[in-house]
Amino acid sequence: MTNVTIHPGICGYVVRVSARKTNDKKVLVSIDTECETVRQMMNDITVLDMKEACTGYLQNPVYRSAARCLQHVACPVPSGILKALEVELELCLPEEVKITFTE
Q1: Which of 8, 10, 32, 100 is most buried, taking the most CB atoms under 10 A from its CB?
Q2: Could you tell me the CATH number of the domain that includes residue 53?
Q3: pTM score, two decimals?
Q4: 9 with 77: CB under 8 angstroms?
Q5: Angle ∠(22,7,86) on CA atoms, nearest 5
Q6: Neighbours of 49 (CB within 10 A)
């Protein structure tokens, strides 16, 4: 199982994502957060097929769900969910991702 904690920024809603690969090339996704709009995404992405999860932005079920549910287009949560999936599917190594503001 792969666990990711996302601190999306000024909203203050921490998001905890768990991704667990099944034997049939699917990933079970669970999300724990107080953000109502991110919780709404769970209606769409509780079980993801490996191929679906690795498609481009317009066909990707995580980004399609985000487009329907999230109000803030710059929210990093969809990317964090997909990073968890990639690691769980052994498509990439777990490496911390940061966005740093500089003057």
Answers
A1: 8
A2: 3.90.1010
A3: 0.93
A4: no
A5: 30
A6: 13
Tokens 């921490």 belong to which residue? 14
Angstrom distances, CA of residue 103 to CA of 8, 10, 87, 99, 100: 20, 18, 33, 13, 10
The verdict on residue 17 lying in a domain is: yes
DSSP 83: H
Domain count, the chain: 1
Containing domain of residue 42, as a range?
Answer: 2-88
Does 100 map to a domain? Answer: no
Q: Is 80 in contact with 16 (CB distance < 8 Å)? A: no
Outline where DSSP puts E strands in 1-103.
Answer: 2-6, 15-21, 26-33, 47-49
Q: Is residue 57 part of a domain?
A: yes
- Tell me, yes or no, whether 102 lies in a domain: no
- Per-residue HEC secondary structure of 61-79 comes to HHHHHHHHHCCCCCCCHHH
User: What's the full length of the chain, in residues?
Assistant: 103
